[in-house]
Amino acid sequence: MHDIRAIRDNPEPYERHWAAKGAPGKVAEILDLDARLRAAQTALQTAQAERNEASKKIGQAKARKDEAEASRLMAHVETLKQTLEAEAERDRQLSDQLRQALAALPNLPADDVPQGKDEHDNVEVRRVGEPRLIAAPKDHVDLGEALGLLDFEAAARMSGARFVVLKGQLARLERALGQYMLDLQTQEHGYTEVSPPLLVNDAAAYGTDKLPKFADDLFQTTDGRWLIPTAEVPLTSLVMGQIVAQEQLPLRYAALTACFRSEAGASGRDTRGMIRQHQFYKVELVSITAPEQSNDEHERMVGCAEEVLKRLGLPFRTLLLCTGDMGFGARKTYDLEVWIPSEGRYREISSCSNTGDFQARRMDARTKAAGEKGTRFVHTLNGSGLAVGRTLVAVMENYQDEGGRIAIPDVLQPYMGGLTHLDPAA
Description:
Elements: H1 4-9, H2 12-20, H3 26-63, H4 67-103, E1 123-128, H5 140-146, E2 150-151, H6 152-159, E3 165-166, H7 168-188, E4 192-193, E5 199-200, H8 202-207, E6 226-227, H9 232-236, E7 243-245, E8 251-260, E9 279-289, H10 294-312, E10 316-320, E11 332-340, E12 345-354, H11 358-363, E13 366-368, E14 376-377, E15 379-387, H12 388-398, E16 406-407, E17 421-422
Parallel strand pairs: 4-8, 7-13
Antiparallel strand pairs: 1-10, 2-3, 5-6, 8-9, 9-15, 10-11, 11-12, 12-15, 13-14, 16-17
Helix pairs in contact: 3-4, 7-12
């Protein structure tokens, strides 16, 4: 959500960035709605003042026993009542139109975000680790099916496309990855573990900028609630409608949850394997900060996500996304991409974003310093630490040997009962 006063005072950056996002002319539309709304509010206030003055004069006329004047004034008040109802309705309609128009427009990028149209204009910040040479690497589907631990056919029979069944040691390895990630983020990086609801209402989905724009990407229940596409939604919503003492900031939350996405816009993309699923697990990181803290917190969060890949020994690179490739609510985003041997390229495994006060305005989340009267909107940040399914894919493919066995990274072996390799199912 955007501050209409900021758009009035300095419309140029809004026009420039929205036009670059394919929404030219939106500033003129917004300012026209704003002008009409303010005119309606002025008309409403004028009619209210006139009614109050007429009501006062009715009492004065009755005190003078001037019934004719009192009757005339009462008729005028009745007319004003109709005017007030009409102006109040116009005020409500224009307020809704302005709110909906502002809610449909993306966040503005930070000043240090590179200009660009799409992923080809992203800037590589660093690479960590060298891809290991694997002769004719198999993909995770062939590896898992050969071990008898991965079954897409069974999942399709019961649920359809973009689902998978993991069995035995592979199911345990998925669980080990999620637990290891959560332990690292909570025990070493200071995040507070949260077990949140997997169903949220409209207010939570709207506040975290998933509604109305991304409704088609979500699954909705028959009672109108939404299955979470990421734990970002409930974790950030912990401060929805709240005023947090500035002395308590930053708040850092982490959750390991199932996530659900319809993948409405992914037709024909990544149809093989586990890269793009309707249901998957993810460790999500969320920070709530004071405005002046968010840039440093963003860099810290990226480091927390990178540390998982470093300790797993997976080659990766970190990208700073350009203006044309950033998400709807992001002010600045780093993507982490892990090496996938079967594809011979890096694939996204984490996205860490600073949304500034964009979400906070939508959910009315504020902070207040001790001894101060006023409040400020908090800044919210979110990032994957990491997507468990994609990390499982990366581990399977990067740790395969020529015989199809999969070694288990050292840091995961305690979670696997000391197991060092995945063996074929009995």
